[in-house]
Amino acid sequence: MKLTWLKNKPSNSAGITWGVPWGQGKLNRDEGIFLKGAGGNIPLQSWPMAYWPDGSVKWTGHAAVLSGQEELFELEKGERHTDDGIGMKVLSREDKIVIDTGRLQFIINKKGTNIIEEIVDDGNVAALHGKLIALQERSNVNEGIKTTIEEPLESVIEHAEIEQAGPVRCTVKIEGRHQGVLTKSRQWLPFTLRLYFYENTSSVRAVHTFFYDGDANLDFIKGLGMEFSVPLKGDPWNRNIRFAGDEGIYSEPAQLLLTRRHWKGNVQYEKQIAGEILDVSNAEYSQLMEHATQNAIWNDFKLTQDSADHYRMVKRTDETCSYVNSIQGTRAKGMVYVGGEAGGIAVGVRNFWQKFPSSLEARDLSKSLTKIKVWFWSPDSESMDLRSYSQGTHVVSAYEGFDEMRSTPIGIANTNEVYLQFYKSPPSHKELIEKVNEWQSPLLLVCEPQHYYHTRALGVWSLPDASTPLKAELEKQLDAAIDFYKNEVEQRRWYGFWNYGDFMHTYDPVRHQWRYDLGGFAWQNTELVPNIWLWYSFLRTGREDIFILAEAMTRHTSEVDCYHFGEYAGLGSRHNVVHWGCGCKEARISMAGLNKYYYFLTADERTGDLLTEVRDADKALLELNPMREFYSDPQFPTYARSGPDWAAFTSNWLSEWERTENPLYRDKIMKGIHILKKLPMRLLSGPTFGYDPETSSLIHMGDGNEGGYHMVVAFGGPQAWMEIAQLIEDDDWKEMLAEFGEFYVLTNEEKKSRTNGELHDGLFSLPMLASGMVAYAAALKDDENLAKKAWNLLMNEEISQMVLPIESQKAEVWRNLMEIPQITTNTTVQWCLNTIIALELIGKYLPEADSKKV
């Protein structure tokens, strides 16, 4: 298969990890894989990520060290290529892990505070004492006097293991908590840190996840990050710090070779600012040095991104003196370099400005050890405030889920990426710019969309098709929807540590603003599966900008909107003003089908954790019945709707089955299908059932009950079920899906007639949401009339509630905006998603006469 760069490619050799799908029966687990470039075979590390039901390999993960000199690669079956190089050396001892990449040597502790004890480059210590840091803020107000205490916290390692060991790539996973540096009285704020190493490279990647387990009313986090100590060589004028700004590099030394008498034609000063190491021992520089060495020595520097549109850099001589303002800008690219005569280290943070408030800090630049601090949450900002936005719930007026107050951040998480690059000699500004651009853009090998499509490894979706005027117009509308939300992220500044990656739910054309402050109309939080829409859109186009949107949404919704431990573990929070605010904690928000695309395309281990985390999410319903508003009969362990609850479970079980081949999870799926088969209305039964998580059993309790049939089809259930239908080869299951879709578009009289009056139109609202299921029925039956009904659900604006064409208009309000007054994310997502599915299943029946409607 052909592989190309997603868009950007490395300037020099870089470690790359990616995943690819294989059609069923195309790759046996004992077959080798090799990678070819224009120059021949490339050392490759491969591993299976998922399997087809017949035992053949469905997805493989790969790692290689690649340069940007090649544009096209071939991945083929054949004998495994043997690496002729030294390869990675990985050693696990009782108290530490030792890794030798061939260029760098790392000592990683299994216990204690310092995670990375030491990094050695060519026999010289390049960095040491790498650990995680945080600041807790506690405030007290007494008689109008506010007292604030900041307590520094640091990491405590609980577990460290080698997850993957070479020859090309090594991954180490470290887990632990934070504790007070001085008091050591409490261990909290759990973390997971993964370190990635590649053969003969001079860099390391870190993926950091922190979890909140405090009291939102008391435990305010003032700062969160990591730090390293770097031994530098050279006099203060040969110590250099550089920050990546909006475009280029800003550079300053610890001590300027600039004086009031030496400023015109001062070539040494120009070289100093360019980052060059100077030899000023010649007599011709004696007067310059006599004057310049009287200049102040600047030891501490920091650059803080305090919003999506502003950063500033400050510096000071030492902690007894004030900071002095230096530069200001808009969007820093999130890299700091500190170095001396023997080189140094560059540290970068992915999505630095997008996930403000963030900062990069260097202290003691002229001392024997310079300390670098990477702040994911900058101490120069206000502390994290994870309390609810209101002391009550607003169910009737603001579409919040329950009267119960369940707004808690306990168990949520946030993941960030950090890069370290080591230099034996000072790099040029150009080298640093190239490196930071690599860090801020996904470096990924991808397949052509046609390959993803033909493998059928990620469900049912269509390739772009402009073969007729109407199809071309629909493709234009699909692109317009993506472009609208891409622009909204920027225009509305949907950025920030806790927000980046999410969209808003419903627009308010009167305020020319999204309903950010109105209960369930604010953040989307995976409602009606925007993740799947974005990932289908990427798979069919290969567009990097869509990948970035989908990646950010996956990172955000899988971490921030979900609970990873605590009373709601395995569930997520429905849409709300704050991401964890809604009283509805449900499996539909956390289901694996929202996140597995990113896992399979990138082989990201953190996302793999999340897929494993939800495999038994159905057991959480024993503690929180999702239908508690309507049903609480003690004869049932709990309750579940066929969708979105059981649909989410099947998505989770499918993920676990295909990744691990554990038959237990296949059997859970089959048990539910078998139970539904025996019911008179099959998948149309319910939609609410009694549910027993211990046996994975749906317990029939009548039909046409509370729950809403539109809920069955709006939350990724059809996408999971269609994929399952491709795998299990059960004609009855396919017929049940088709039966559900066909039933949705029957007349009210036909619905009643087929069910003895039990089911009727009043139970089947928002029919556009079912258009994909109707298309499935039409395709299975090859029924043109049914296909026309499916297209009518999408093309008839009165039914779809989708305003076509998708066109923004200018609003001159507090600033000039582009808006679609009637826009809702729910409708847009489902229209796009179902259109993509319908184009695949019933594109041949698309009536050109409807072109005027779009």
TrEMBL record:
Pfam families: PcRGLX_1st, PcRGLX_2nd, PcRGLX_3rd
Domain of life: Bacteria
Ranges of residues in domain PcRGLX/YetA-like N-terminal RIFT barrel: 1-69
UniProt xrefs under PANTHER family: CONCANAVALIN A-LIKE LECTIN/GLUCANASE, TAT PATHWAY SIGNAL SEQUENCE DOMAIN PROTEIN
Positions of transmembrane segments: none
Location of the PcRGLX/YetA-like central beta-sandwich domain: 90-434
Protein name, as recorded: Tat pathway signal sequence domain protein
Span of domain PcRGLX/YetA-like C-terminal alpha/alpha toroid: 443-846
